[in-house]
TrEMBL record, chain A:
A divalent metal cation binds at residues 175, 177, 263. It is found in: Nucleus. Residues 400-415, 452-461, 468-491 have a biased composition (Basic and acidic residues). Keywords: Chromatin regulator, Hydrolase, Metal-binding, Nucleus, Repressor, Transcription, Transcription regulation. The active site is at 140 (proton acceptor). This is Histone deacetylase. GO terms for molecular function: DNA-binding transcription factor binding; histone deacetylase activity, hydrolytic mechanism; metal ion binding. Substrate binds at residues 98, 148, 302. InterPro entries: HDAC_I/II, HDACs, His_deacetylse_dom, His_deacetylse_dom_sf, Ureohydrolase_dom_sf. GO terms for biological process: heterochromatin formation.
From TrEMBL, chain B:
GO terms for molecular function: DNA binding; transcription corepressor activity; zinc ion binding. Keywords: Coiled coil, DNA-binding, Metal-binding, Nucleus, Repressor, Transcription, Transcription regulation, Zinc, Zinc-finger. Residues 188-203 have a biased composition (Polar residues). GO terms for cellular component: histone deacetylase complex; transcription regulator complex. It comes from Sipha flava. SMART domains: ELM2 (SM01189), SANT (SM00717). This is REST corepressor. It is found in: Nucleus. Residues 120-171, 347-398 form the SANT domain. Belongs to the CoREST family. Residues 34-119 form the ELM2 domain. GO terms for biological process: regulation of transcription by RNA polymerase II.
Amino acid sequence: MSITPFKKRVCYYYDSDIGNYYYGQGHPMKPHRIRMTHNLLLNYGLYRKMEIYRPHKATAEEMTKFHSDEYIRFLRSIRPDNMNDYNKQMQRFNVGEDCPVFDGLYEFCQLSAGGSVAAAVKLNKQSADICINWGGGLHHAKKSEASGFCYVNDIVLGILELLKYHQRVLYIDIDVHHGDGVEEAFYTTDRVMTVSFHKYGEYFPGTGDLRDIGAGKGKYYAVNIPLRDGMDDDSYESIFVPIITKVMETFQPSAVVLQCGADSLTGDRLGCFNLTVKGHGKCVEFVKRYGLPFLMVGGGGYTIRNVSRCWTYETAVALGAEIANELPYNDYFEYFGPDFKLHISPSNMSNTNATEYLEKIKNRLFENLRMLPHAPGVQVQAIPEDSVRHESDDEDNVNPDDRNPQSITDKRIAPDNEFSDSEDEGMAPGVGGGGRKDNRSYKTVVPARKQARLDSNRMEIDEPEFNILKDEKEDKSVSSDDSNKKDSVKS
Amino acid sequence: MANDNSDLKNGNGKRPAPSDIAADIDDLIQENAEKIRVGRDYQAVIPKLLVLPTHRRERLNKKALLVWAPTENISEVKLNEYILLSKEKYGYNSEQALGMLYWHHHDMDKALSDLANFAPLPDDWTTEDKLTFESAFNSIGKNFLRIKQMMPDKPIASLVKYYYLWKNKRKKSSVIDRQAKKLANVRANENQNGSREGSSSAESDPDDKKDLGEGSSKQSCSVCGVFVTMLQQTPKGSMCGTCYTHFRRTNGGIRPTLGPPRPNNRHLNVARNKRLPPRGMYVNHDDLQAIASSPDAKGDNILSAVDDEVVSLKCKIQSNKQDIGQLQKKIKLNINEYRNSEPISPRIVPRWSNDEIMLAIEGIRRYGKDFKAIAETMGTKSQTHLKTFYAQYRKRYKLDDLIKQYRADQCNTIIELSDDDDEQVSIKEEAPPSVSRPTTLSSMASGTRLINLSLSTPKAHQTAAAAK
């Protein structure tokens, strides 16, 4: 189905406005790092190897699939100039200190969430192997509460989207902070396993104890790996690889979400680990090998030059492209002095994670994972009725006239058809401008000639054969997974 | 964080976790405040798994706008040319250029002809805007809300964007700052020794004129950088009058020179410490005059043209560096291939190379007639090969003498070499230098010679061992 069977089809979500939001003076969170990453990708020539999407702004309705109505309403209405009217609510929703009110706060949340949701939808459509949204990964946000620089939990929204088409979704978090927002959202379900590697002990957010394993049906479906200061590449790999291998074996997810928080890198302003870009990227490489639908999101990262190095490298890893250690010239070149290299060296800080300590954690977690039923089945009684309504809502919004041609253009049968996809998603030629087009207006853009071609495509579609092709592809990916697993065990 | 709102949307529908589960766990959560909370106010509502035929999947709403998709119809080189052209001719950045190409479904000709119609707007930041921003930033700091009050026509997003680009440039100038300071210090020391007169090229920098006044023979103070005619020599460098007084009064203290922040004071700092442009920087006199005499528009043009040139040169430098890096990597890879292939699969070749002959001779010296051991060490010859070698070259290389020597070593008796053995010794001595020569060479050099080094090291070890 894909044009190049060996390379992964990578889709990248980015909105050029996202770098322009500013949390406030002295605040360590800088959305600008996403633009720096983007600029590096562009100058490394990685940009042209991916499908580039400009995500829509997530609507309030989409965000309330997880968050409470009241909280989203609050985020939508609060501004720096009317803050004083909202004192009580600000306290209740934990907005003010770590999570300040800044200009464009709601739009920022919309863009970040919109990217992850759009990426998840893309994976559901099976028209991409890997989707990347560096603007996402805000893993601390709770259902009705902001926390740790995060307001809207784009990861939860993305996973909820994936759950519509995937029985089991695995969430992995390599941020130095515990992924508490995501863990809490899925604490009682067995359809999402959350695995978080984080610094634990007198450290934000304070959760993530080894003994926190989930509750109710979700017991044993939350995996926490508490670590100490100074984790280096080797120790990290020594714990990441066996645990993820075991999790993949027992949980058998059909999609993976990886939060690539870059504050676990050495020299981070807030972090205390000692990972290099290579060591961090190895996690991406390892997860990628399983060949499952793969959503990569950003997250923490407060030494922005290293964050953009890291995410650039990880984009290259996702693409399977080699990139030079020398950085190309870019708009923010001087940020990368004095060496102007991609890779960074670890510091001489001592690693307080003894091998025995890591071994003990590992064995304890293996014991927990043994308690899992092998590949849990569908929990039919757990299906909420209202989500069906949401789904039909989505479809009702579609103009019935648009539906047929759109569904047909989406089908990727011949490479020639690849381009037809562009016709309805194409951007207006007004460079730098061009807002998102909804289905209604797209129709006026497509010339009549193309419409005719789409119709002719419809005639050629052979439904059964189509399905067979897909099955074959899945079989292949499974077999390649097995060999990959063996390789990884060897190494 | 008890949320007692009853109209929670997500709480209304039928929920996956029945309330008895929540109650079950309730006592677990109480023990620690910083635990994951369980309850309808905290967990997400898990959607139903939709088991749909494939075609229903395709109907999912699109949630993003595709602005670029990779293509295999256009070669990398052509794409680069296109991007360069659109940049130079119409001022597109590469993202915009690719967007245009994609809009035309990767049709290069169409995109090229359309480029002119959608040329991006030039930067809407005028010089005044930039100056206002700088002075606002210097007095207010990074409070963009307040900066916006001073520049009401700019949205905050635009301010933030400019700030990050400008910060970049400011760093650039501070590098020059440092360099200029360093040069000034060096020069001050030189002046102290009387080895060098004050520079005469001060007029090359228009900013300097203001500070320098009429003369170019003035010298700069090493503390505050002020140009004066009289310098006081101190153990901490030459100083102007004010600094010297401070130095004397505080018993060797250096006068603090950081005053209250002034708008544009970074420009002054650069100028104050700079008498010569940094090494490798040349100033075109005509351009300078043009800048100084004509209204600012022309000067700006010259400056921006020079800036563009600098950027393109930097691009070239980086891409050259990348090429070098790639080549170096290749070299290393090649070595590894060679290294791995040798021990794992030593191919037995009947032909004798010079190196092998030398190895065999050394081998005989070391192991005597133990051909099996020699064959194992060499890896590229079989036992029989070595036997025939011995038979063939016995006379020519005086192998018997070597074996004698070997036996003598074995018996731990030292046989004095007679003059007759000269020839044999010369052979023996010939071998090690010819082998070790590349080693010494490569220790001096790097890069391509790396190969020599790695190739010769194993042999060098063996000869060293043999010499023992």
